[in-house]
UniProtKB/TrEMBL annotation:
Name of the molecule in the record: Sentrin-specific protease 1-like
Any Gene Ontology biological process: proteolysis
One Pfam short name: Peptidase_C48
Limits of the Ubiquitin-like protease family profile domain: 28-227
């Protein structure tokens, strides 16, 4: 039922955006300001790796997939959750650079512009309206997704391969700066007045595990997408991740960056993406 209503809503909107020559400009409407960058990367076959199972994805892949999800959420607010904030891979590095163990905790403006959702080409939800805050981390060539739950004061690390950091020592080193700074960030935002609150870090054992090397980044992207679509991230598996590679390849390389698509072609692409997300 949810999937059918989502598809019907998209079909109706696409029809409303149709012009006399049976063309639409949804590409530029969704990717205002970044379509040219996507087109350039298409020429460089930037996303070819996304379609190949087992191929490691880089920071640029993860960030552009997150950006694409944010733009889809912006275009279709009746389909995707509006209370999910998504950070890029630079955010964790900014936090680590600002954190001083045992020293004063100052929250720089470079962090607050993220939390307020004020970055022009990154239309994320402000933290004071977020039920989840998603932050991708990469260490030793391994990707995990930190899913922050402000209400529970908890950072949940969704990790598809515990063998990379079996005792969780490296993850704690990477994520602890953000956990320590969370109350100070919220105070700086005016959301709370107490900086003494403690935030916990957990890595659930029941998050699905990858069986193929090189899939950690796509698992993180899939977990972010399922969270945004209000789906259970703990149902992700290798088959879904393999399909995710194809869907994102299609989304970014195959069609949406092309201006002047025929309506029938654009319907196929957008419905393919949305139906895929909601069919699991």
């Amino acid at each position: 039922m949810v999937k059918r209503k989502a598809i019907e809503a998209v079909e109706m909107e696409l029809q409303e955006r149709t012009f006399d020559n049976n063309r639409v400009i949804l590409a530029y409407e969704i990717y205002n300001g970044v379509a040219e960058a996507f087109a350039t990367r298409r020429e460089k076959r930037f996303f070819v790796e996304m379609a190949t199972p087992g191929t490691w994805v880089f920071t640029e892949h993860v960030d552009e997939c997150f950006r694409g999800l944010l733009e889809l959420k912006k275009a279709y607010p009746y389909i995707f959750r509006g209370d999910v904030a998504m950070m890029d891979s630079c955010f964790s590095m900014i936090v680590q650079g600002a954190f001083i163990e045992g020293g004063p905790t100052n929250v720089p403006e470079t962090i607050l512009v993220y939390t307020r959702g004020e970055i022009d080409d990154w239309p994320s939800t402000p933290w004071d309206k977020a039920a989840f805050i998603l932050v991708p981390y990469c260490f030793n060539g391994h990707w995990v997704l930190a899913r922050i739950v402000p209400e529970a004061k908890k950072l949940v690390i969704l990790d598809s391969d515990h063998s990379v950091d079996s005792n969780c020592k490296i993850i704690l080193q990477e994520v602890t700066p953000l956990a320590r700074m969370m109350p100070h960030i919220l105070v700086a935002m005016g959301v709370q007045t107490d900086t003494d609150t403690q935030w916990t870090i957990v890595r659930p054992k029941d998050f699905p595990k990858q069986s193929l090397s090189g899939e950690c980044g796509v698992y993180a992207i899939a977990a972010a997408t399922f969270t945004l679509a209000d789906r259970d991230a703990y149902t992700i598996n290798d088959a879904i991740v393999s399909d995710f590679r194809k869907v994102f390849y299609l989304l970014f390389v195959g069609s949406i960056v092309v201006v002047g698509l025929r309506v029938c072609e654009l319907v196929v692409v957008v419905l393919h993406v949305i139906a895929f997300i909601f069919c699991y």
